[in-house]
Amino acid sequence: MEKKLNAIDSEVNRKSLNEKRAKSLFVTGTGTDVGKTYITGLILKKLDMANCKAAYYKLAMSGNLRDKKGNLIPGDAKKVKELSGIKQDLADMCSYVYENAYSPHLASRIEGNPVDIRIADKEYENLLRKYDFVTLEGSGGITCPIRFDQEKIFLDDYVKYKNIPCVIVADAGLGTINYVELTCHYMETRGIKVKGIIFNNCVKGDVMHEDNLKMCEYLTGIKVIAKVSRGDKEINIDEELLKSLYE
Question: Per residue in 68-85, pLDDT tens?
Answer without folding.
Answer: 999 999 999 999 999 999
